[in-house]
Amino acid sequence: MSRAVVFFLQALLAFAFLCGLFAQVAVIPATAANEVENFPPYESVRVPLVVLAIVFVACLQLLAVALGGMLHRAGQGTVFESGALTWTSVAISALAAGAVVLAGLFVYVTFTDIPSPADGMEVLGLWMGSGAGTVAAIGVALLVVVGRQWLGRAIAQRAELEQVV
Fold first, then answer.
1. Could you tell me which residue, 63 or 1, shows the higher pLDDT?
2. Per-residue pLDDT tens for 48-106?
3. Count of other CB atoms within 10 angstroms of residue 63
4. Which end of the chain is least crowded, N or C, by CB within 10 Å?
5. In this predicted model, what pLDDT tens digit does every residue of 106-143 receive, in sequence order?
6. Distance in angstroms (rounded) separating the CA atoms of residues 145 and 147
7. Using alpha carbons only, what angle is made at residue 130 by residues 113 and 138, rounded to the nearest 5 degrees?
8. Of the candidates 105, 140, 141, 142, which has an alpha carbon nearest to the alpha carbon of residue 126?
9. How far apart are CA 119 and CA 160, in angstroms?
10. Counting beta carbons within 10 angstroms of the beta carbon of residue 95, is it exposed (0 to 12), middle (13 to 18) or buried (19 or more)?
């Protein structure tokens, strides 16, 4: 992979990481405060939803770090060495943690009486989105697990080939 492409992708991941940090510190709390100001009954659910949102963004940041580590290995040509398995494990862990956070949100929305300023469609959307997000995160994590197994086999075959040669 071209060094310029690796650098560009790493820069994008770093920017995404910083945007996530900005969202955790400023955007999520400010948005929640604004929503409570516009509809005071939201105060009862503000803290749990803000905490879940911040933790979910942290999971995405961890995934960005893992992808950055794999990109670094791709740039150095060391993808097929055992250290690459560590980064795939980190990615799987981040995806699994994100799925757990989304599942927690799904359960929270299911069993909590969340007030609605209108017809409840925003609560239904949050419920459906968290359920679909949970399924999607689990699916992507399982795909990465399969990719990790393939990578492990490729590393083993490369080591075996190096012994033969």
1. 63
2. 999 999 999 999 999 999 999 999 999 998 999 989 999 999 999 999 999 999 999 99
3. 23
4. C
5. 999 999 999 888 788 889 999 999 999 999 999 999 99
6. 5
7. 140
8. 105
9. 63
10. buried
Helix (H, G, I), strand (E, B) or coil at 56: helix
Distance, in Å, from the CA atom of 132 to the CA atom of 109, rounded to the nearest integer, reads 13
Domain boundaries defined on the chain:
3-164
- Which residue do the tokens 């999520």 mark? 28
Residues counted in the chain? 165
Please, is 40 exposed, middle or buried when counting C-beta atoms within 10 Å of its C-beta (0-12, 13-18, 19+)?
exposed
CA-to-CA distance for 161 and 2, rounded, in angstroms?
26
Instruction: Please give the angle made by the CA atoms of 91, 82 and 14, to the nearest 5 degrees.
Output: 40
Angle in degrees, CA 34, 98, 60, rounded to 5 = 70
Q: Work out the angle at residue 112's Cα, subtended by the Cα atoms of residues 109 and 116, and round it to the nearest 5 degrees.
A: 80
Measured CA to CA in angstroms, residue 109 lies from 45, 103, 130, 162 at distances of: 10, 10, 9, 54
